[in-house]
Amino acid sequence: MAENLHDKAHELAQALRESDEFQTLQALHEEVEEDDVASRMLSNFRKVQLDLQEKQMQGQQPSEEEISQAQKQFEMVQQHEVISKLMDQEQKMSTVIGDMNKIITEPLESLYGTPEDEDQ
């Protein structure tokens, strides 16, 4: 049975690769990578974003300056048409994966319940 589950997981991964959502994401990613300016802008934005997340995970509050810098970086990348489209597509892909995860974990949720069930 485990072999069958792994086969199904690989089929799911292949279906994901072939999906319109992934194909669009891949094309936009390649377009950004081919544009040196866009690639640097996105890389800088992701670095600032990652730095803030690391601070928060360590229980530290980002400074006003760091928050302001992150906001400026975000506004800059949002003004770049291709980067903005890429980020929108990343969000769509995240939703698809979240939906898939929810479907995959339904058997466990039905077995153990969900945290919402415990609150009621």
TrEMBL record:
InterPro entries: Com_YlbF, YheA/YmcA-like_dom_sf. Belongs to the UPF0342 family. This is UPF0342 protein SAMN04488123_10753. It comes from Natribacillus halophilus.
